[in-house]
Amino acid sequence: MNKYQFEDLISDYIENKIKSNDKNDFEDYLKSNKQAQDLVNSIKFNIEAFKKIPKVKVNEDFNEKLLSEVRIK
């Protein structure tokens, strides 16, 4: 597995949607590459951080008003 194949599979790996044969290759690459480990850990950390951000509530007509403003300018 090369760097680009690895990077293409990161999301599937984190979401546990990776095919088993790809998973073995992915984990072998991960074990042998410290930068790859750091990258996956960083992405996992960011995902968890985003999950903790409170959701913003807006009025029901927010999108309509926003689009109206954008179209005018």
Helix content: over 70%
Q: Which descriptor suits the 3D outline?
A: elongated
Q: Tell me what portion of residues adopts beta-strand conformation.
A: under 5%
Could you tell me the mean pLDDT? 93
| Beta strand count | 0
- Give the SSE order as H and E letters: HHHH
Number of helices: 4
Helix- and strand-based class?
Answer: mainly alpha
Span between termini: 49 Å
Q: Which value, in Å, is the CA radius of gyration?
A: 19 Å
Identify low-pLDDT runs: none
Strand count, sense and barrel status of the largest sheet are: none
Please outline the helices and strands:
Elements: H1 3-14, H2 20-31, H3 34-52, H4 62-72
List keywords for this structure.
mainly alpha; 4 helices; 73 residues
Structural account:
There is one protein chain. With 73 residues, the protein is mainly alpha-helical. Helices cover 74% and strands 0% of the residues. It has helices at residues 3-14, 20-31, 34-52, 62-72. α1 packs across α2 (20-31). The longest helix has 19 residues, at 34-52. The N and C termini lie far apart (49 Å).
Compact description:
The chain is mainly alpha-helical and 73 residues long. The chain has 4 helices and no strands. The protein has helices at residues 3-14, 20-31, 34-52, 62-72.
